Amino acid sequence: MSNILVNNIKDTGNNTLLSSDGSGNIAGSLLSMTPAFEATISSQQTVTDATTTKAQFNQETYDVGSCYDHTTNYRFTPNVAGKYYVYVQLGFNTDGSSQQENMNVYIYKNGASIQTSHFNFSANPIWYSTGVISSVVVLNGSTDYVEAYGNCDDNSGNPGFQASPYSRFGAYRIIGA
User: Fold this and answer.
1) Which of 28, 48, 94, 168 has the fewest CB atoms found within 10 Å of its own CB?
2) What phi, psi does 122 have (nearest 5°)?
3) Please, what are the domains in the chain?
């Protein structure tokens, strides 16, 4: 059996990809899953019936890298290029029982929908629902951003996006560019 003994693995630009302290503790950019964030909605967000609306995830659970805007644009703009695992869980609430007929959850990249999750309850309308969607999204580390949107068709009123713990939006880097 052969062994290769090293403390550091670097790329041709002399950037450390992996390093070891000699005691089995490994660190490096290949293992880093940051930037990363998760945010929730602090109180129910009322939305217009059957209208695609950006979810205002305004309460950060964590934001490693300070790349999530939780006050104005409600978007994640990572400062490191890579492939990101993006997820949205969006709870929908109607004005009364058994009124929700359709529900959509979207992941938007740079202002356009790239993934959709759809449920149709028109044969048996419901009161509450939670849509979940995830995707691996390539982000350039400078100008690319992702957002969460939802759309709910309430047959007799205005629906809302439910607050935490029913709604959450997050992302983390899974691999470099």
Assistant:
1) 48
2) -60, -30
3) 1-31 (no CATH), 34-176 (2.60.120.40)
